[in-house]
Amino acid sequence: MALLDKDGVRLTVEDTVATVTLTNPAKRNAQSPALWRALTEAGRSLPGTVRVVVLNGEGQSFSAGLDRQGFTPEGFEGEPSFLDLARSEDARLDATIADYQEAFTWWRRSDLITVAAVQGHAIGAGFQLALACDLRVVADDVRFAMRETSLGLVPDLTGTHPLVSLVGYARALEICVTGRFVQAEEAERIGLANLVVPGAELDDAVKDLTAALLAAPRDAVIETKTLLRGATTRSYEEQRAAERASQARRLRDLAGLSD
């Protein structure tokens, strides 16, 4: 049963697993402000029982990026065009982009593990949406690209932080400025992809990974994700202290001594 099905986004939930699907294959799941609002709503609609969220796209492409209609004078029906937004005052422009970014932020919640199942094109906003997830399982026909810079823009949908974290500054700079394609073998080699499989095996590979992610106790998974995410900003000694505090909480919980 779908908890949400609107504006190119469908959310279904089965027990502890939610699936968010981009549902406009005719446009290669191109993205718009309406789609971003639907993604934000999907995140807010998740039942508390959900532990893993799978993100996928219908058709041959995961997401070919931003729908270029937004850059026409007409824009999207009922929406200000991006050209209109460019003429707005700084505070409004900043707030609008922040609203768009909300569609890309909730995937990193500590109580969830999010998995992008990516096939075909994942370009620009599509690449950034895949980067928003914790893990990426990709088909062997995947083609990642960050095209914003070559169009005179910058990646602004939260993709720069995870990209640098995964591949390092120099590689991230080269990928963004050249706008070139990163294909499956390279994506796995440089850390963008956790696993590469033939396209026909993508769904089964994601199911196997999901089952493995659900095998560990939920509280331990949440503590581990929080610990690992903080490691990049802590010193070695600070991380040691964080490990001790996390382990103390787990031991007390297991011993039934927590408050």
List the defining traits of the structure above:
259 residues; alpha/beta; 7-stranded mixed beta sheet; 42% helix
Please describe the topology of this protein:
Layout: E1 2-6, E2 9-14, E3 17-22, H1 33-44, E4 52-57, H2 82-86, H3 90-105, E5 113-118, E6 121-123, H4 125-132, E7 135-139, E8 143-145, H5 160-167, H6 169-178, E9 182-183, H7 184-190, E10 195-197, H8 202-213, H9 218-230, H10 236-254
Parallel strand pairs: 3-4, 4-5, 5-7, 6-8, 7-10
Antiparallel strand pairs: 1-2, 2-3, 8-9
- Stretches where pLDDT is under 50 for at least 5 consecutive residues are none
Distance between the termini: 37 Å
Helix content: 40-55%
- Alpha-carbon Rg, integer: 19 Å
How is this structure best described in words?
The chain has ten helices and ten strands. The chain is α/β, with parallel strands linked by helices and 259 residues long. A hairpin with a 2-residue loop joins strand 2 (9-14) and strand 3 (17-22). The chain starts with a strand and ends in a 5-residue tail after the last helix.
Short description:
This protein is α/β, with parallel strands linked by helices. Helix content is 42%, strand content 17%.
